[in-house]
Amino acid sequence: MRTLVQWMFSPLFFLSFIFAATSISQNTGSPAWLIPLLLFAIALSFVAEKWLPYEKAWNTPQGDFGRDIVHAIVNEGSLALTVAFIPIMTAIVPHFSIWPHHWPLLVQLGFAIIVADFGITMAHYFSHKYSMLWRLHAVHHSIKRMYGFNGLLKHPLHQAIELSAGTLPLLLIGMPIEIGALLGFSAALQLMLQHSNIDMRLGPLKYIWAVAAGHRHHHVKDGTRGDVNFGLFTHLWDHLLGTFVTNSNERPSPRNGELGIGSQPNYPQNYISQLFQPFK
C-alpha cells in the first residue's frame, strides 16, 4: 500500500485538485471557493508528509512554522489581490484581445501554465545570476528543511518579480480573471509538491515534472551546486538551459543538514528580519 501511494500520491493530488478547481470555477463563477479548497490541499499535504516522509527530521518544526505561516498569508493574499485586479489591469494596460475563450477551460489553464512556467523559470534563473535579484531570492533559500508549506516562503518583492514575468504575457493577450485565479491555485499546489517532504516515486515523469524529487537539488547549500532545476511546473526549460539534474551516485538527493545558504549559515530566520535582509 505504501509503495502504491508513493507512486500515485503526487499525480493524483495535483490532478484531483485541478479538476475540482476547474469544476468549481465553471459551476460557481467565483474564485473565492478556491480558498477552502487550497486549505484542504495544505492539510492533505501535511498528512501525507507525516505518513510517508522523505526525511523524518523535516517534519519537526525548527522555529520556522509561524514565520512560514506569515509568509504564506502575505504572499497568497497579495496573489489573490492581483487576481482580483485583473479586470482593471486589462482595462488599463494595452493588450491584444486574442485569448482563446472558445477552448475548454482545462486547455486554457494548461496553456496559461506553460506560458507562466517559462516566464517564472527565467526570472528564477536570472535570480541566481544577478546580485540584487539573488538578495531577494535568498530569503527562499534560507530554509533548512523542505516541507510543502515552505514552498510559499518568498520575499514579497521577489514574488512580484516572478509573478510579473509569468503573467504579463498572459495579460497582454487578454487572460480572463477565472484563468488567473486557477493559475494562482495551480502554482500554490505545485509549490507544495515541489517542496514536499513526501518520499514520492515518479519514474520517467522525473525528467519533465518539477516536483520535490528534483527540486531538492536546487536547495543544496554547497556553492553553485544548487544552480539547477529552476522550473516551477516543468523541467522543459531546464533541459534547454542545460541546468537539469536528477538523482545519481555522483549527485544523491540532499538529506537533512544539507540545505540552506552555505555562505550565510546564520541567515535571519524571523519574518521581519527576512524582509529587510536583502537591503543590508
TrEMBL record:
Major place of localization?
A: membrane
InterPro entries assigned to the protein according to its UniProt record, in alphabetical order = Fatty_acid_hydroxylase (IPR006694), Sterol_Desaturase_Related (IPR050307)
Under Gene Ontology molecular function, one entry of this record is: oxidoreductase activity
Q: Can you give the residue ranges of the Fatty acid hydroxylase domain?
A: 111-243
Does the keyword 4Fe-4S feature in the UniProt annotation?
Answer: no
Q: Give the transmembrane region(s).
A: 30-48, 69-93, 105-126, 170-193
Location in or out of the cell? Membrane
Give the enzyme's EC designation: 1.-.-.-
Q: What class of enzyme is it?
A: oxidoreductase
User: What keywords tag this UniProt record?
Assistant: Membrane, Oxidoreductase, Transmembrane, Transmembrane helix
Q: Which residues form a coiled coil?
A: none
Protein name from the UniProt record: Sterol desaturase family protein
